[in-house]
Fold this protein.
Amino acid sequence: MNISIRALAVAATLMLGAVALPGAPASAAAPAPHCESGASHYFCDAASTGTTTWTVTYVYPPGVTVTYTTPFASLYTSCPNPRRSVRVFYSFVSGGVTETSGTTGFLCNPGDWP
């Protein structure tokens, strides 16, 4: 009986470990994106090649995470609310290996561009 409890615990741990949750990457192979915000929009530039997947988290409640895919190394989109804190990282495939960046944080700026 002790063996089946242990086996069940191992199986549950493996299943939970397989669940991927959105958020910041554990380790970064690519540099964090450079982002600027103005006029209630933001622009981020990546050091990626080809198709780039962007993960954007709007930190201030309710903490919504959105994923964008662009065919190039930049992202331009509107802020859902002014002065909302944003965290961004990106990933791309290079030579068959998925590269993931560090995370950049900024505030959505409703005013002039810097």
